[in-house]
Amino acid sequence: MICGAPWYVSNQTLHEDFKIPSIQDEIKSNINRYKDRTTEHVNQLINDLFTQPLENRRLKKIWPEDLDEV
What residues contact 34, with CB distance under 8 A and at least 6 apart? Predict the structure, then answer.
């Protein structure tokens, strides 16, 4: 609606034309920035967030850090 494109123009075309990242790409870049900040943090508990694997998850859902692996 904002750009005035007709209804038959796909979202992918709009993203490519206006150079807007997709939601998954934006999440991946935010995850990478978060990982960089936490792995270099002075607090060891924060540092261990991404160095130790999350094996015992109780909820079966997609976590943001899982999107980085896809």
Answer: none
Could you read off the pLDDT of 14-28 as tens digits, one per residue?
A: 888 999 898 888 888
For residues 65 and 50, the answer to whether their CB atoms sit within 8 Å is: yes
User: What pLDDT is attached to residue 3?
Assistant: 83
Average pLDDT, the chain: 78
Task: Give one DSSP letter per residue of the chain, joined into a string.
Answer: --S---TTS-HHHHHHHHTPPPHHHHHHHHHHHHHHHHHT-SSHHHHHHHHS-----SS-S--HHHHHH-
